[in-house]
Specification:
single chain; 326 residues; alpha+beta; Nucleoside Triphosphate Pyrophosphohydrolase; 2 domains; nine-stranded mixed beta sheet
């Protein structure tokens, strides 16, 4: 029989390392452990031919995605309607990959331009609004052997989701709608990152992230957000505005950080290391790097020495950072 356990993230692990199920038993085990829509199902030690048979009998959104081999055992993931990051088999090899996007959003208030950051309850530092691709944002043409990732769509959806919630104003709770931009605000990306992610207890998941720059200025689209964010009681002694956000499953705080003045700088290893010395406390190094690129005219360059990238302040797992000429 399969061994069923729950990991620290409440994901269900069904282990077949000592038991080869029939297709009927596999379906029954999955059905019996699909009752919690907030948790993914990780299937350990399943023969890939059996996984293929299972996938042929269920809708695409219910299929399992091959993750990797760990400790000699295959691992497949069924997302089970959860909000967990989705792995995508874009090239038909059965290997799941991760795709994500972020937005560097410039907002004008008074005589100062600010960049919007968010504090995710699962992350130790503030990041730019963004997240991973959902199923409808990655499409594959099996006949042509091609695929496409709607990175702008990811960025727009995540920005809307991560700025929606409730705030306190004059002692009462007020609902604010998320920022609903369309693709006309988005140009080409300014930064592309390749990194190895750790997901569902397994390291080295292949991942790609694109970061876009959007200048919203004084647009009426952000009027409601600005009315709540830029209040004197939200202003810290460091010049940063912080607004507590409630009733949002991911974000606990919206943060407006003054944008540094436009400047030219070298975006090679030495120049990047100097920039990261001015990293605001509690802010993602990668997101701050993208913020500085948004106010410069930087030539295209790729930094792909993972050891050196880690040594100058980027998080472990970053394989390459490519500045896109803009």
């Amino acid at each position: 029989m399969a061994t069923v356990t729950i990991d620290s993230f409440r994901n269900v692990l069904i282990n077949y390392s000592r038991y080869r199920p029939t297709i009927e038993r596999l379906r029954n085990d999955i059905s019996a452990n699909s009752h919690n829509p907030d948790s993914a199902i990780v299937i350990v030690g399943l023969d890939r031919s059996l996984a293929k048979r299972y996938n042929e009998s269920v809708p695409e959104s219910s299929r399992m995605v091959y993750q990797t081999v760990a400790d000699g055992l295959t691992r497949h993931v069924i997302f089970n309607g959860s909000s967990c990051p989705k792995l995508h088999d874009v090239d038909g090899t059965g290997v799941g990959r991760l795709y994500s996007s972020n937005t560097v959003l410039h907002i004008d208030f008074g005589l100062t331009t600010y960049v919007l950051f968010v504090k995710d309850r699962t992350k130790p530092v503030a990041t730019l609004p963004g997240g991973t691709a959902d199923f409808h944002e990655v499409t594959r043409n099996a006949t042509a052997g091609t695929y496409s990732v709607d990175h702008v769509g990811i960025a727009m959806r995540e920005l809307r989701e991560e700025t929606t919630g409730t705030v306190m104003m004059d002692g009462r709770e007020v609902w604010i709608e998320g920022l609903d931009l369309d693709e006309t605000f988005y140009g080409p990306p300014i930064l592309r990152t390749k990194f190895a992610s750790t997901l569902y207890g397994v390291r080295d998941i292949d991942a790609t992230n694109l970061i876009f720059h959007v200048r919203i200025g004084h647009s009426s689209i952000v009027k409601d957000l600005c009315r709540h964010l830029f209040r004197w009681e939200n202003l810290g002694t460091d010049g940063i505005y912080r607004l507590e956000l409630g009733n949002n499953p991911e974000i606990t705080q919206l943060i407006a950080i003054p944008l540094p003045k436009s400047s030219e700088f070298s975006n090679d290893y030495d120049g990047t290391e100097k920039l990261l010395r001015r990293l605001p406390k509690g802010v993602s190094a990668l997101c701050w790097h993208a913020t500085l690129l948004s106010v410069s005219h930087s030539p295209g360059i790729t930094l792909d020495d993972a050891v050196r990238l880690s040594s100058i302040g980027f998080p472990p797992g970053i394989r390459s950072i490519t500045t896109i000429n803009h």
